[in-house]
Amino acid sequence: MKNKRFFIILLVATFILLIPWLAMQFTDEVNWTLFDFMVAGVLLFGTGILCEIALRKISSIKSRIIACVIILFFFFLVWLELAVGFIDKLL
Asked: How far apart are CA 7 and CA 1, in angstroms?
């Protein structure tokens, strides 16, 4: 079960990375470089792996949920900062 969940996490992260790649094939509005794909891959795969580690190591359901929410919060915060410079606009 644990390896199946890990495989699904990697599959979902790969699918998410395919979305901008497919968009680039049909429009000039999306213009990602190899570096953009690498950063997005590290963020997506890293977040997935961290959530998987939290699910494997933490026994309490409540603590698992809190850990995954915190991980996802920081993922979205970093993604938002890289996309539009959110933190710079707050300061």
From this structure: 10
